Amino acid sequence: MLRPTLNSLSAARTRLPALTAGLSTSAAACNVTAPNPRMHLDPSLQALLRDVDMSLTKGATKHKAPKKRELDVFPQDAALVDVEPFEEEEIEDERLHRKSPAAKFGSEKIGSLVLPYELQRQISLVVGEADKHMLREDALRLFGTNGKGENSAWDPSYDVKYGSREQRIRHMEGDGTAFATVALPPHYAAIAAVLRHVRQRLEPEYRLERVTEWMSGAGSGLWASMHVFQEKLPNGTYDPDVNNVNMSNSTIKSYTSIEKREGLRMIGKRFYGVNMELPEDRAVWHKAFHEEDALPRSKRNSAMALSAFALAAQPSPIARRRIVKQMWDSGAELLVGLIDHNTKEGFEAVADAREWLLRQGRKEMDEAESSAFAVRGSHVIAPCPHDGACPLYHPGAMKLVCGFSQRLHRPEFTRRTKHTKFGHENVGYSYVVIRRGERPARAATQVGRVGEVGMRELEKQADADITPKELLLQVEHERLLQAASTEGAEPQASPATEPAAGEITPEPLSGTALEAALRHEAYSWPRLVFPPLKRSKHVILDTCTPEGKIMRMTVPKSQGKQPYYDARKSEWGDIFPHPPKNRPQERFQPPARMADGEAPVQTGHDIGKRKLKGMKKPVTYEAIEDDLKLKQKQEVKDRARERKAMQKLQRREEENMNDVD
Length: 661
Fold this sequence. Notes:
The protein is α/β, with parallel strands linked by helices. The chain has a domain at 109-436: Vaccinia Virus protein VP39 (Rossmann fold, 3-Layer(aba) Sandwich), CATH 3.40.50. Helix content is 41%, strand content 11%. The protein has 18 helices and 14 strands. The strands form two sheets. Strands 1, 2, 3, 4, 5, 6, 7, 8 and 9 form a nine-stranded mixed beta sheet that branches. Strands 10, 11, 12, 13 and 14 form a five-stranded antiparallel beta sheet that branches. A hairpin with a 5-residue loop joins strand 12 (538-544) and strand 13 (550-556). The radius of gyration is 40 Å and the shape is extended. Residues 483-507, 573-661 are annotated as: Disordered. It is found in: Mitochondrion. Keywords: Iron, Iron-sulfur, Metal-binding, Mitochondrion, Transit peptide. One of its GO terms (molecular function) is structural constituent of ribosome.
């Protein structure tokens, strides 16, 4: 390999300027030469290129940023500014008219209820000031949990006795905050649902002004009653949006709370006192009820006695009876004091108090001293369509309960305290509403049974009854009328005739008269005490009837489009106005313990059950997850069994080989 020497390097350096000069002269010669001649393109290709340039130009202008508009200067005088008021278009839901007016009256519900904004704000402020870890511990201490989050049983009832004065002072504020966070929202939802139904069943001119609540807790009954019983709108109706109301617009003038738990009284006063729009003397809190708190007869017609989620929490039947007796002695016309959990204990407490109050009303009717009273006796407004014995009430041996459900949108502080990810909660409750006075007589009329679906069916029947000859005469008559109108001649009016068979006649009642008739008839409509069973071409309804029995009604499609549509759209807790096509079947739930020598009753063993023979279970994510877990466990057991069998077989082969050797 040749290596460069010093002489060769020096020679290359001497020749480098000459090579550089030569390259520069050659580059200059290239620049001096003329450019390439212009290409002659075909005219069609030139037109295509111009179109491409235009499309690119349009795209570029399309994505340009718009120019910023300057703010318009308005005159200072507002009278000079002509601003048209914004009129919101009313979008009417056509599905509401498909149901008959009677079915619509019997199925008025709130839907998903939201806690009032004022109450949410007050609870959020209290929770913001509290220690979050202590709040969670107080909630667990008061209501208990099994540590599984959503599956835990949060019992909204609360009655605690402190061991010492120091413990009472230390836990009192925390107890109130935990109760308001966990128990107050579901309490409010159940009470608001019951009061909303009560307001619908009462007369339009009824005005509730006084409320007395036993075991009021943090004031859930105060907030629910003031939000439900509002002043009417200028058109004479209530605001349909129960979640958008104002406490200052309520008809309630006086509220009395009977609460012995000091921590709950403190938190209730704080929630109410912060609202500056209400007078301070409008609500008072007492530790016990006294005889002087009873209302005079001149003020009883506008008063209500309320006790929610308190009866089942009492330590003994005597304590429950004491609360119910105080409610009766208060003199209030409305006794909405029987709201409790939809458990066996809660329903038993409600049913027992119901029987006692009705018995007191019958006793008052028999007494000679009360003959001079304008209002005597007592009757049930809801949910029972009768004043007899409850067919589901078997003290100490109940299998089923008469309960209902209301969905609540959980606030953020409730979700965080319960450590749950679900934004809603179905609040179960049992209730009864009793009013002083005799029960109204059973209505003999049936109005409001035809809605849009029924009207369409009647129109089709009327069109089908018209003969072709009548159709031709009708067309000829319309042609003659049109010809007479075009010539200027005034046609003579035809004499009035009676409506033909099949012709649709308007509803004899409408507006307030129809609503008053439906309100009277609703006292004898059966109520759905269990969810309806919607099958193919028929609906099964388990109802509590005016006869005091649990009857299973079947509404087939052949009964008519309107009754069938109303049955398909019915929900748990509705009152159903249509009579059944076929004779209903009585359902009797026998008690758990039968008398000696008495054969168990087999009729009605499937009452309230949604599963029939030969029917598959509904598929849910929980069921799928449970099935997968069972299959995985079974597979593990099978593999372990096979492994043991193989090991046993191998040991036997080894023993046989050793014997042969």
